[in-house]
Amino acid sequence: MQVAKKLINDRLFPLYCKQEIESISRLIFEKICGFSGLRLHLKQNETISAANLAQITDIINRLLQFEPIQYIFGETEFYGLIFKVNPGVLIPRPETEELVEWMINDYKQLAPTILDIGTGSGCIPIALLKNLPGASAVGWDISSEALAVAKENAKINHVDIDFQYVDILKTIYPAHKEAFDVIVSNPPYVTTSDRKLMHKNVIEWEPHIALFVPDNDALVFYRAIADVALHLLKSGGNLFLEINEKYGKEVSALLELKGFSNLILRKDINGKERMIKAELK
């Protein structure tokens, strides 16, 4: 194993930081060799087979092309659940887990009806249904590829969700008025000018349709989501949004202008304003 660890470290440094390399190493040894936790520590001096070493070398070569490790293995963990992922869907982020945690704490014992706009891998509604007994959910996306992945993830995690192809920038909503207790969305919010600040593993691999908005219309999806919520959210229902940390005040002002109240702008674990909750009276 020491040979494999040295190979990973020598080839990935300095393209990846020390913390990333350690995380990648643990994942590789777990997936390829079946070693994790204490067993990984105890197997430090064990010789890895030539076949496994070849697999590890192939993974390293893909990582050197900045392919995310989650896409290489075809899965990731989100809120304690396993999700299939591929370049047709965004890789779920920790800050989205914080948004899910907020919703779960607010809706315990309430069995809400939920709409997730821009569902991607389906991670948000699936995690909610696994933790809110009696809840039901609908997931919208404009990507047929993403919807296929979301349906597979719902099946893997044993929940029933109605996934639908919907373009929210159009004004025809395939549901009845006041159909949902809560609407949630993690829409595209990275401005085109911010692309230069992002890592190659995001820019070159993750779907741009789920990431970027034009510099001159950064709130385009938030306006559309607010209009959907005005049409489909029940009176007293809540809207939960993940946001660009730079636009907390702007999104809050937009929602207030649309008629939402009791706005809460919340910081993530890193102290960045990344989530908003708003109530429809």
Keywords:
2 domains, Rossmann fold, two-stranded antiparallel ribbon, alpha/beta, seven-stranded mixed sheet, 281 residues, 11 strands
List the helices and strands and how they pair.
Blueprint: H1 2-12, H2 18-33, H3 37-42, H4 50-63, H5 69-73, E1 75-78, E2 81-84, H6 94-107, E3 113-117, H7 123-131, E4 136-141, H8 144-156, E5 162-165, E6 180-185, E7 190-191, H9 200-203, E8 212-213, H10 220-232, E9 233-242, H11 248-258, E10 260-267, E11 273-280
Parallel strand pairs: 3-4, 3-6, 4-5, 6-9, 7-8
Antiparallel strand pairs: 1-2, 9-11, 10-11
Helix pairs in contact: 1-2, 1-4, 6-7, 10-11
Detailed description of the structure:
The chain is of the alpha/beta class and 281 residues long. The chain has two domains: 2-64; 75-280, Rossmann fold, CATH 3.40.50.150. The protein has helices at residues 2-12, 18-33, 37-42, 50-63, 69-73, 94-107, 123-131, 144-156, 200-203, 220-232, 248-258; strands at 75-78, 81-84, 113-117, 136-141, 162-165, 180-185, 190-191, 212-213, 233-242, 260-267, 273-280. The strands form three sheets. The protein has a seven-stranded mixed β-sheet with strand order 5-4-3-6-9-11-10, with helices on both faces. It has a two-stranded antiparallel ribbon with strand order 1-2. Helix 1 (2-12) runs parallel beside helix 4 (50-63) and helix 6 (94-107) packs parallel to helix 7 (123-131). The protein is elongated, with a radius of gyration of 21 Å.
